[in-house]
Amino acid sequence: MRVIVFFDLPTQTNKDRKIYARFRKDLINEGFIMLQESVYSKLALNNSIVKSIREKIYKNKPPKGIVQMLVITEKQYSGIEYVVGDKTQDVLDNTERLIVL
Question: What tens digit of pLDDT does each residue of 25-83 get?
């Protein structure tokens, strides 16, 4: 499954920009990757992980703006069509595990 977070936060004041940066940094620290500006995605292996992700988003939510979450299956996610632009391969984003001994 994938958890996709969409957000639109105010950035008019210095305080607003700090809150925006903190929320974005929290997403990245939780393992989210940027799909496009203000749209982040994270792989979740089961429903209990999705629940944990949701709780962390609610805990770190900003006081103003809009934050939305969408949970979809991998099959649905793989159906993304690129109308303009190409998929980037900068980030390894799959269920493979790396073990360094």
Answer: 999 999 999 998 999 999 999 999 999 999 999 999 999 999 999 999 999 988 888 88
Judged on CB neighbours under 10 Å (0-12, 13-18, 19+), 5 is buried
Burial class of residue 37 in the structure, from the number of CB atoms within 10 Å of its CB (0-12 exposed, 13-18 middle, 19+ buried): exposed
User: For residues 28 and 87, what is the distance between their CA atoms, to the nearest angstrom?
Assistant: 19
CB 7 within 8 A of CB 60: no
Report d(CA 72, CA 62) in Å as an integer. 24
Report residue 15: phi and psi, to 5°: -65, -45
